[in-house]
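Exercise 3.2. Students should predict the tertiary structure of the chain below and write it as structure tokens, then compare their answer with the key that follows.

Predict this chain's 3D structure.
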Amino acid sequence: MRRMNTAPPEGTIVTERRGALLLIGINRPAKRNGFTPRMFRELGEAYTLLDDDPALRVGVLHAFGDHFTAGLDLPTIAPLMRSGEKAVPPGLVEPTDLGTPGYRRRTKPMVVAVKGITYTLGIELMLAADIVVAADDCRFSQLEVKRGIMATGGATLRMAERAGLGNAMLHLLTGDEFGADEALRLNFVQKVVPATTVLEEALRIAQAIAEQAPLAVVATRLNALKAVEHGPLAAMDEFIATQQRLSASEDAAEGVRSFIDKRPARFTGR
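Answer key:
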């Protein structure tokens, strides 16, 4: 993972720490940030870094240049498709967060800033995240059917879950292009802002999350995800045990102290 905005021909993923935030930048603007095997590997490494470093609390996925990503760089990815090989090495956090055997699932929050062309993998990465801020110039398309392949990064699951089967089929089966307002209507994105402020707004939201109690943030995220994936009863089964564990933490004690003292809490993640 490079930490400078100098993209080799095959692209790279740029990471930058800003306090408790990890900025993860897609960096291949000359090719509209089309993903190569190297970029997949480095993205998995960046997501794993976010989860493994206790000093980091929230990830912010963004892109260099005018576009988020045009999706897969098919000439470099097609051989992996034919062989069934994964571009992200096993043992890492899987950026599409599908629970694939051999891969870890992300636990910490991810905010995504999308802009310009956001095709195929770009939609799947944002749907796998927690909060999406879209620029008003976004152009979305899940166009795998136009290339003779199928979306396998979560679009067939999450588009239907967010927008209903009919709305998902409208875009999955035609591969049409739609804008930020339609993405907002379908619950694919949470906010639409001017393109000049999209990263700024994503960072603002991420910082607001980072200021909360980290253990409570992760527990809340995972419980909501369990409700979506396994149903509300499965999530409810965890309520008492999770609350007992959180109530015994130093952060819960700090939350009470800050309430009594009428001051902002200073959470440590313990």
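Discussion points: Residues 147 and 178 are 18 Å apart (CA to CA). The beta strands are 12-18, 21-27, 58-63, 110-114, 117-119, 131-135, 139-141, 178-179, 191-193.
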